[in-house]
Amino acid sequence: MIGHILTAAVLISSGLAAGVLFTHAVGVWPAMQAMAPDRYVAAHKLLGRAYDPMMPIIVSTSLILDVILAALSRNDIGRILFIASAVCLAGVGVVSQTRNVPINRRVKSLDPEAIPADWEDPRGSWGKWNLVRTTFAVLALVGNAAAAVTAG
Q1: Looking at residues 9-14, what average pLDDT do you find?
Q2: How many CB atoms lie within 10 A of CB 31?
Q3: SS3 for 113-148, per residue?
Q4: In this structure, are residues 137 and 89 in contact, taking their beta carbons and an 8 Å threshold?
Q5: What is the average pLDDT across 90-101?
Q6: What keywords tag this UniProt record (predicted)?
Q7: Do the beta carbons of residue 95 and residue 136 sit within 8 Å?
Q8: What's the CA gap between 9 and 106, in Å, rounded?
Q9: Are 17 and 92 in contact (CB under 8 A)?
């Protein structure tokens, strides 16, 4: 019974992580790329207020659930899939903390009304790394779904 509850929880948490990152990659990010720098900085600050505290909690929760489920799994295929999903979620966290978060901090430190003339626009780099972590998150969700199916 606990395995079923944890499996449902990991499907919800990894689905939320993949969904938010995917939606951001295909909808929000293209719109932000089209904005003038001052509008981009303002929008980035607004979006970060909600995403920054929630996404690490959701991704970490999903990763922990995957590790627990791998330990509880009586099915070798399910165990491997939960471990693979945990590794993918760790990839989301590593990319986020080492690539996207430092860019976020730099952007948030700017005044949208006073963008420096020598400002290096980080959107290309941020978008590339966001696609990497989105791919990891979607793969984690696929792995969790496959593990849930193999568990019967």
Answers
A1: 98
A2: 10
A3: CCCCCCCCCCHHHHHHHHHHHHHHHHHHHHHHHHHH
A4: yes
A5: 97
A6: Membrane, Transmembrane, Transmembrane helix
A7: yes
A8: 34
A9: yes
Q: What is the mean pLDDT of residues 42-46?
A: 94
pLDDT at 150 over 80: yes
Contact 33, 122 (CB under 8 A): no
Report d(CA 109, CA 150) in Å as an integer.
Answer: 47
Each domain of the chain, given as residue ranges in start order, spans 2-151
H-helix segments, the chain: 2-23, 29-33, 37-72, 76-95, 101-108, 123-151
Structure-derived torsion over alpha carbons of residues 148, 6, 141, 75, reported in degrees to the nearest 10: -40
pLDDT band, residue 129 (cuts 50/70/90)? very high
Burial of 45 (0-12, 13-18, 19+ CB in 10 A): middle
Mean pLDDT over 128-132 rounds to 98
